[in-house]
Design a protein that fits this description.
Elements (H helix, E strand, L loop, with lengths): L12 H10 L1 H8 L10 H14 L7 E5 L6 H15 L4 E6 L2 H16 L1 H7 L6 E4 L3 E6 L2 E9 L16 E5 L4 H4 L2 H15 L9 E6 L9 H6 L5 E4 L17 H13 L3 H7 L30 E7 L10 E9 L2 E10 L3 H15 L3 E5 L6 H13 L5 E5 L6 H14 L3 E2 L1 H13 L10 H7 L1 H7 L1 H4 L7 H13 L5
Parallel strand pairs: 1-7, 1-8, 2-5, 2-6, 6-7, 9-12, 11-14, 12-13
Antiparallel strand pairs: 3-4, 4-5, 9-10, 10-11
Length: about 500
């Protein structure tokens, strides 16, 4: 959508207004035609829907803490939200606060540039007709039937007595107001937090104000305000990392997962994986666990062109409880008698989805063995795996139950850490980001860790010990069998 004239014959003005109000992508293409390139991903659309809900509430003082990773256009998103407020709400006074005044001025300048965009002017009218005040720090203008105030403030500014035309802010946006340098100091960070809560937020309109704090995490020992707000029950939280639980990128077109993994590996090689975990994954606990040094792992024993000595799949099912871990499905290859987890999938999969993913690993990698944690109801997965293979006419793949033994899960994971550090088990680069996140978060004193991938890894040595004959690569799976899975999946979508 280069300009509104190109839309003639497709949309009326009323339709353009309705589409801009209803669609984030449409609004972005309309207001930023030279910038808009990729459609916003589902998580952003969820956040946008929530923002629209809160902004239309009357006499409300909601507090939203938003954590989006660096490099994922979070500031652009909220500039668009300011535009939405101006075009489609009854709010009058938007106060934007950043780490310094220059950044806050840049923010509101970009919002005003959106209003100057020909697409916006031709549909919504020319705001310049109603200008009363226009400086770098403050814009006051009458537009769409009401007076609008847009003001910039640095984190060292004085918001006391903010009262423009007898109005106080009814929207406050705090965008990256805590710099990394400031977060190094506990004293300065606590002073900033007191200023935020005790001074700035008190300068609100008595008729209601929406507070939005936008940031990303800083790794410990930095003093992250977002981390505090995350634990504050009075704030509504929307905090998401650049790599989702299923291993995909939060915004794959903008930042492909392969690119994020390379960034992670660079931080890991530099000895600072906690930076990636905090600032890209929004996981501030990354440096808490000192049980294993992820910067000093032994090299993976895979030589170029080498064929693995064997392979297998492990399924670690969830317990079935509402708050249980995701299901984890890992594909392993054997090199120099050591297991290497090459790929991993994790998510809240149905039993049918779990079996399909495991079968895809087996058929794609010519794998004979699927080991399934055999506790409680989960043991039925082995039965259904065999049943579906029978339906598909697939032979040569065996589902075997594997049991944890007498040790607790946390004890098994601590043993895993020792084996991982010693080079007795390995994780391939493409699977490391998810696994290392769980490692960094793991607390051996807690029973509610998110550790499904770690639990899965603990079974790998036991699988190699108990099923050596099934691990060897001596099975040939036909193309017909592989195609049978695709056909069966299409015919039985209810199962998968």
């Amino acid at each position: 959508m280069a300009n509104i004239e190109q839309q003639e014959g497709r949309y009326s003005v009323d339709e353009v207004i309705a589409n801009a109000e209803g669609s984030l992508d449409f609004l972005c293409a309309l207001a930023m035609p030279h910038v808009y390139e990729y459609a916003f991903p589902p998580k952003y659309l969820d956040l946008w829907s929530g923002l629209k809900d809160y902004i239309h509430r009357v006499r409300d003082f909601s507090q939203l803490a938003v954590g989006l990773p660096r490099g994922f256009s979070k500031t652009t998103l909220f500039k668009l939200f300011c535009l939405y407020i101006i075009l489609f709400t009854k709010r009058n006074f938007i106060l934007v606060i950043c780490a310094n005044e220059d950044k806050a001025v840049d923010f509101i300048t970009d919002v005003m540039n959106m209003l100057r965009e020909p697409n916006i002017k031709s549909v919504f009218g020319d705001y310049t007709i109603g200008i009363e005040t226009s400086t770098k720090q403050k814009h006051v203008f009458t537009y769409r039937g009401r007076k609008i105030i847009l003001k910039a403030l640095g984190s060292n500014g004085d918001p006391r007595g903010i009262n423009v035309n007898h109005q106080r802010p009814d929207v406050m946006i705090f965008d990256d107001m805590q710099s990394k340098e400031l977060a190094e100091s506990q004293l300065l960070s606590e002073a900033l937090e007191r200023w935020l809560v005790g001074t700035v937020m008190k300068a609100k309109s008595p008729k209601g104000c929406l507070y939005i704090f936008i940031a990303n995490m800083y790794p410990k020992p930095y003093h992250s305000i977002l981390r505090k707000l995350k634990d504050n029950p009075n704030w509504v939280k929307f905090i998401v990392g650049g790599i989702l639980a299923d291993g995909s990128s939060l915004w794959g077109e903008l930042q492909p997962v392969e690119q994020l993994i390379r960034e992670y590996e660079n931080d890991l090689a530099a000895g600072h994986p906690e930076i990636f975990h905090a600032e890209v994954l929004n996981d501030e606990t990354a440096s808490v666990n000192n049980l294993i040094d992820l910067s000093k792992l032994p090299p993976i024993p895979i030589r170029p062109g080498e064929i693995p000595a064997g392979n297998f799949v492990i399924i670690d099912p969830a317990s079935g409880k509402v708050n249980s871990d995701d299901i984890a499905i890992g594909y392993f290859e054997v090199y120099d008698s050591f297991p290497v987890m090459m790929e991993v999938r994790a998510g809240k999969f149905s039993p049918g989805e779990t079996i399909r993913i495991a079968l895809e690993f087996c058929l794609r990698k010519n794998c004979r063995l699927v080991a399934i944690e055999g506790v409680a109801y989960q043991s039925t997965l082995a039965y259904w795996f065999d049943f579906i293979c029978l339906q598909l006419g697939i032979t040569g793949i065996e589902a075997m139950e594997i049991f944890p033994g007498g040790n607790s899960k946390n004890s098994r994971i601590l043993t895993l850490f020792k084996a991982y550090s010693a080079g007795e088990i390995f994780i391939y680069e493409s699977a490391r980001a998810m696994a290392h996140t769980e490692i960094r978060q793991f607390n051996p004193l807690r029973r509610d860790n998110v550790d499904n991938i770690l639990d899965l890894l603990t079974y790998a040595p036991r699988v190699m010990l108990e099923f050596p004959d099934l691990i060897m690569n001596n099975n040939v799976i036909s193309q017909q069998e592989y195609q049978a899975l695709e056909v069966f999946t299409e015919q039985h979508n209810c199962c998968f």
